[in-house]
Write a structure and sequence with these properties.
With 398 residues, the protein is an alpha/beta fold. The chain is built from twelve helices and 15 strands. Strand 1 and strand 2 form a beta hairpin.
């Protein structure tokens, strides 16, 4: 039988490992002393729950039940200034459900805390390795902001390496997570059943104009690269709403202006353009429009545009059976307080979906914030999410 008090106590006990001095904030970057301590604490909890603790070569910690079993989990590493629930919620919910099933004779449930979901070495690192999206030889060469390689970082846990876990022992994967956005909080709903994890497109764009003296070059004859960027941004905001939904997002970042001096007309500007949506077709339509608008803005100001550094991740659809189990459980336990919704953030489930059927469940984020110390969720919503997840697990096992 589920024990909500025990579930909340474990969440707060995990929060204490790496707790920041502000609010409920947590600082547990991948492979830090705090992160490793949290994983060792979790391994002890797994063992107490009757699961077999296991550390893999990427630093993930597993609590393994008798095969075949359903796999639950997420991650326990955090952003440099992170919240207490991002990732940790899914792991501790999995622990409580596995423990309750062990005590009550329910179907076997295994649990995992994947390493480096938050991106010290790129993002969703360990789940990408485990699911075969990337290879260890490749990731070992990746460096963090301080120049430390993944190979060096994982040496801090090398003594715990017990080999890779065979995915064949699992029947599927469920990840419970805070929404990290505003929709559930704004609507007053408690549960979001994820339909898909949105796809991501990222493109580097460079506008080239003509660098010149800012005091002597008339406004009418300037080929100002920044004005091209400004016009491009305005054009985007005017044109994209005609082809997107209210959950589509786009962002300009990494703006590098040259020569970036107050007395020089900017000769060039390079920036990133990222957009996210759950439809691959819509992502492609946006790609065409973005490139067309950029070319038009460059021409309008007498300049040129070039594109490079493009990368993309396709949308990840949730498994229909897993999605239905979560939806049915939400309809029973939160009949007027749930919705189907996409995930605008990337999660480990996107990698696991390459090898297992997956489903995801959201609970609200107060004020829609995450990746900050202020991240929080009402305890009643945390418990409701646990109950919905547990009922879905029982449905899937049967």
């Amino acid at each position: 039988m589920l024990n909500p008090d025990r579930f909340l106590q474990d969440l707060h006990a995990l929060r204490a490992i790496g707790a920041a001095s502000i609010g409920k904030g947590v600082q547990r970057r991948a492979f830090s002393a705090e992160d490793i301590a949290a994983r060792q604490w979790l391994a002890t909890r797994f063992e107490e729950a009757g699961l077999t603790p296991h550390f893999d070569p990427a630093g993930s910690v597993w609590g393994l039940a008798k095969a075949p079993s359903l796999l639950l989990g997420s991650h326990t590493d955090t952003q440099p200034e992170g919240g207490w629930l991002d990732g940790a919620l899914g792991v501790i919910a999995g622990l409580e459900i596995a423990r309750a099933h062990k005590e009550g004779g329910g179907p076997p449930v295994s649990v995992v805390s994947f390493q480096d979901e938050e991106g010290r070495f790129g993002g969703t690192t360990a789940s990408a390795l485990w699911s075969g999206v990337t290879q260890l030889e490749e990731i070992d060469q990746v460096t963090d902001d301080a120049g430390i390689t993944f190979a060096d970082a994982r040496q801090s846990m090398a003594h715990l390496d017990e080999g890779w876990v065979d995915p064949a022992q699992f029947t599927g994967f469920l990840e419970m997570h805070i929404e990290q956005g505003p929709w559930l909080d704004l609507s007053g709903e408690q549960i979001g059943v994820v339909t898909e994890i949105v796809g991501i497109r990222d493109l580097k764009i460079t506008f080239d104009g003509a660098q010149n003296h800012a005091g002597t070059t008339p406004m009418s004859t300037r080929n100002d690269a920044f004005q091209m960027l400004s016009a491009f941004n305005q054009s985007l905001n005017a044109a994209l709403p005609d082809i997107v939904t209210d959950t589509t997002v786009w962002t300009i970042g990494h703006v590098s202006l040259h020569p970036n001096a107050s007395s020089v007309v900017p000769g060039s500007v390079t920036f990133s353009m990222q957009w996210r949506d759950g439809s691959e077709a819509r992502l492609q339509d946006m790609d065409k429009l973005i490139r067309s608008l950029a070319k038009d803005c460059a021409s309008r100001f007498g300049g040129s545009v070039s594109f490079g550094g493009a990368w993309s991740l396709p949308p990840t659809q949730m498994d229909p059976r897993f999605k239905a189990a979560l939806s049915d459980a939400a309809a029973e336990l939160a009949p007027d307080a749930h919705r189907l919704m996409p995930s605008g953030a990337l999660h480990d489930a996107a990698n696991v979906a390459k090898i297992l059927p997956v489903g995801m469940l959201f609970v609200p984020s107060i004020n829609g914030v995450s990746h900050v110390f202020e991240e929080d969720t009402k305890e009643a919503d945390l418990v409701k999410g646990l109950q919905v997840l547990s009922r879905a697990v029982s449905r899937l096992a049967n």
